[in-house]
Amino acid sequence: MSQYRLNYLEQLEAESIHIFREIAAQFERPALLFSGGKDSITMVHLAKKAFAPGKIPFPLVHIDTGHNFPEALEFRDWLANEVGATLIVRKVEDTIKQRNLTEPKGKFPSRNWLQTYTLLDTIEEFKFDCCIGGARRDEEKARAKERIFSVRDEFGQWNPKLQRPELWNIYNGRIHKGENVRVFPISNWTELDIWNYIRAENIDLPSIYFAHEREVVVHEGQLVALSEYVKLDAEDKVITKKVRYRTVGDMTCTAAVESNANTLDEVINEITSTKISERGETRIDDKVTEAAMEDRKKNGYF
Amino acid sequence: MDLLRFITAGSVDDGKSTLIGRLLYDSKNILIDQLEQLEKSTKNKENGEVDLALLTDGLRAEREQGITIDVAYRYFTTPKRKFIIADAPGHVQYTRNMITGASNANLIIILIDARQGVVEQTRRHSIIASLLKIPHVVVAINKMDLVNYSQDVYNNIVIDYAEVAKSLGLKDVTYIPISALKGDNIVDKSETIRWYDGKALLQHLEEVEVDTDVNLDNSRFQVQYVIRPQTEDLHDYRGYAGKIISGIYKKGDKVTVLPASIETTISKLEIGGKEVGEVFAPQSATIQLADDIDISRGDSIVRSTDIPQTNNEVEVLMCWLDDKPLQTGNKYYLQHNSRLVRSVVRNIEYKLDVNTLQKEAVEGNVKLNEVVKATIKTASPLVFDAYQHISGNGSAILVDETSNSTVAAVLFQ
C-alpha cells in the first residue's frame, strides 16, 4: 500500500476544504448558514481547517425559528466564540411580526416554511452573495440533483432545469446583481460519513445527540419532545424515555429515537444497524408530500 | 476504506436504472422507509417484485413530464469501499450530461443490451470515455436472461467491443455478463451463468485498483486563496492555499512560481493548520515560501525540475454545453481551476463526430453537444499541461460573460 494514499474521509475532507476556499475567493459577502445540527457543526470544523491559522473569513448566520432546543442554542454560542467567528442571529418571530405573517397551526406548528422569509430578508439585509448550506445529496432526491454551486434568482428560487453543468473541480460562481449562490460543501457526504468524521476528528456536539432522559409523546410512531410549542391533546400520554436525536431541527418537527448510546462509537453502531433513513426516522414535516423538499427548495428554502 | 467514483452509461432501454437500483438494493443500501416509498410507487405489481428502476426516479417535475433532467448522484457503501455514482440520463442532451458526470469518474460502466450488441450509442459512450481519459471501463452485457444466458452471444459482443476499445486505445476493459433485472452477476456471482469465470460486478467495483489513477510524478499546484491572518502573532504569515492537482511537494523543494517564473523554496507545508513534511495529490494544503513574492489566486507553484507550458494561446478540444451557440469573436471567461482569464475562440478546425470519430467541416456556429477542435487565445497566459498527460491541469470551462452560464468544457491538447 502506497504511503501517498488518502482514505475516503480524507478525500471528502480535501474536497470540502477546496470548496470552502473557492467560496472565500469567489464571493464578496459569503455567509455560513448555521442550524446548530451536526452537519453545520462539521462544516464549521472544515471551514476552520480550510483557513487555519487564519480565522473563518465569513460570519455564521442562524435563522432562529424560536422553536430550537435550548441545548443547541447554547452550543451555537459556545462554538462561534470558540472558533472566533461572527455570529448573526435573525429570528422568524420578528419576521412574523414585521410582515404580519400567519403562524402555522396544528399540533406541531412548524415554522420551517416561514424560515424562508427570514432567510431571504437576511440575505437582503447583509447583501450576502453566497450562502453556505449543509445539505447532503444522500438526504433526499431533490438534493441528489443539485449542484455544489447552486445559483438562485433574486427570489431565492432554484430552477432544476437551468442548472450550470459542473465539471471536474471547477466551480463557476459568477452571478448577476441580486442573485445569490447556495453552496453545499458536504454534498458528497452521507450521514454515516459525517458521524465517522466527527469521531475521527473528535468534534464536539450538543448533548442531545447522546442518550438522555426526556419527556415525550408518541405521535404516529415517532417520539416528540414535550415543549411549550407542541400542543397536547387530551388523549396524549406523556412518557419519559431514554432518547437521543439523530438530527437537530426544530422541537416541533424533529423526532427523537430511543437509545442507550452515550458515546460516538455507540451512536455509530446504532446508526449502522438501523433500517430507516435519517429523514424518514426524524423529520415530521417531510411526510406531508413526497415532493415536499422539491417545493421548498424551489421557493428559496436552503 | 477508499472511494470510487463511477458513471453509468447506457441508452434509454438498456436497464441502467434497474442496474443502479439493483446495486443499491442487493448491497443493502436501501432502508425500510425508502423501500416502502418504492413499493407504494411501483405501478406494475404483477410479478410481485418492486420496480428497482424507481429507486433512481427523480423530481416531480421529471415524473410529470416523463423525462430526466440531468445528472443525479447516488451513494452507497460496502465494507470495502464508498461509492459515488454519477447517474446521467440518456437522450437528447446526452453528450453534455455524460461529460459532466464523467469528468470526475474513475470508472465507467457501459451497458450493452445483449439482444442488440454494440450499437451507435455504445461507440459514443466509449469515445467520450476515451476523450475524458476515464481510467477503467466495465462493459456490462445486460439482459442475458433474454438471450438464454448464451455464451456465444456474450463472446460475439466481446469480440465486437474489443475492436472499439482497440481503436480508441481504451486500456483497462473488463467484460461482465449480467441481468440487472434478475440480479445475475451484480452483487453475487450468477448461479446460471456458470461458463463465466470472472467476478460479479460489485466485487469488481470493490477491487479495481484506483491508487494508480492519481498522478504522483508531476507536481502541480494552483493558488486558490492567500491566507493572511494579519494578527499580532501572525502578522508576517502568508500561506498559499490550494489543492494539490498532481504530484508530491516536500519541505525544502525548489519551486518556480508561474507565470511570473520566479524561483524560491518551500519553507513550510500545512494541512488543516498542522505542519507536515510533505503533501500530495489530491490533498488540500497550504504552502509557505522562503521569499516574499507577489503571488495571487490562479498562480501556479511547481517543482523547478518539471515545468508545465506557459502560453496565451492553446489548442483545445471543446464540447459546447449551452443552448446558445458559440459566437465567434465574442469574449468568454476561461476558468482553469482557480485562474480566470478573458479569452476568445479562434480557428475552429473541425467538428468531431462522437459516434464515429470522423472529422467534419464546421458549418455555422458551434452548437449544443458538438465537440470541436479549436484554438483559444487568452488575455493573460495560462500555465497548463495537455489533458491526456495531467487531466487536472489540462481542463477548463468557458463562461458566457453576459449570462454567466457555463457554456463549454475545454480539454487542452
Structural features, described:
The complex is a heterodimer of chains A (302) and B (413). Chain A has 302 residues and is α/β, with parallel strands linked by helices. Helix content of chain A is 35%, strand content 16%. In chain A, strands 3-2-1-4-6-5 form a six-stranded mixed β-sheet, sandwiched between helices. Chain A has a four-stranded antiparallel β-sheet with strand order 8-7-9-10, with no helix packed on it. In chain A, a hairpin with a 2-residue loop joins strand 7 and strand 8. Chain A is globular, with a radius of gyration of 19 Å. With 413 residues, chain B is an alpha+beta fold. Chain B folds into three domains: 212 residues, Rossmann fold; 84 residues, Elongation Factor Tu (Ef-tu), domain 3 (Beta Barrel), CATH 2.40.30.10; 104 residues, Translation factors (Elongation Factor Tu (Ef-tu), domain 3, Beta Barrel). The longest helix of chain B has 18 residues. The chains are: A alpha/beta (302), B alpha+beta (413).
